[in-house]
Design goal:
- By secondary structure, this protein is of the alpha+beta class.
- The protein has 2 domains: about 80 residues, no CATH class; about 130 residues, no CATH class.
- Helix 2 crosses helix 6.
- The longest helix has 21 residues.
- The protein starts with 5 loop residues before the first helix and ends with a helix.
């Protein structure tokens, strides 16, 4: 995994385009937005080529994702048949935005806190189909599905789960380490393989160079000032 931080990336890009801080449109937010756009394209290409599995370290760990039991009214809106579960738990907080691969969210694993039991990510429709099997009562596989920014878990009694995924947002709220919770966003790693950083930066520079070369309409500005 790249050890380059978000702050490193924004500073280097400013240097490469020889932009100064007075260029108000070159904010950290804008530079990071461009990075996410071009990184997403590269990630999907690598995912389609199945080249990301060798880079386990690019996946971040949400160490403690707390769960809560939902009532029957909310459970009825989950899209699964009531007979297929005793209780349903969901994440207490909305899940951070995951990086999208070619086949969906880049989630490497969902597991119990000690990692001893893995949960299979599915869909409400697929879970309904599985639960109608006559041998479902003997099925020991744990399941979860993603719906409306939350993850739902039927028939487990755990207080929390651990998730490994590629994420686009701050996940400090899901960290157990106090220092990681307090770490500024600029200090977080970019979480992309080193060998695609140069192509991402080249694509960003192409975008920025075009924008920097667009001339200002001085005549239009002067006309407005005279009025």
């Amino acid at each position: 995994m790249s050890k380059t931080t978000i702050g490193d990336m924004t500073s280097r890009l400013r240097g490469l385009v020889k932009a100064v801080r007075q260029d108000s449109f070159l904010t950290d937010r804008m530079l990071y937005s461009l990075f996410k756009k071009h990184a997403s394209l590269s990630i999907k290409r690598l995912d389609q080529a199945k080249r990301l599995t060798a880079f386990a370290s690019i996946f971040e760990s949400l160490d403690y994702v707390q769960l809560q039991v939902i009532d029957k009214v909310e459970a009825s809106a989950c899209g699964v048949a009531p007979k297929s579960y005793a209780t349903i738990r969901r994440t207490c907080l909305p899940i951070p935005v995951f990086t999208e691969g070619i086949y969906g969210p880049m989630i490497r694993s969902i597991a119990s806190l000690d990692g001893s039991e893995l949960i299979k990510l599915t869909t409400p429709d697929e879970y309904n189909y599985i639960s109608r099997s006559k041998n479902f009562r003997y099925n020991t596989q744990r399941y979860a599905w993603y719906l409306n920014d939350y993850l739902y878990f039927p028939n487990i009694n755990w207080p929390a789960v651990k998730i490994e995924a590629m994420v686009e947002e701050d996940i400090s709220a899901f960290k157990c380490d106090y220092d990681q919770k307090c770490e500024p966003r600029q200090c977080h790693s970019l979480n992309v393989p080193d060998f695609i950083l140069s192509e991402i930066e080249a694509a960003i520079l192409k975008d920025l160079t075009f924008q920097l070369q667009v001339p200002e309409d001085d005549a239009h500005d002067n006309k407005n000032q005279l009025r």
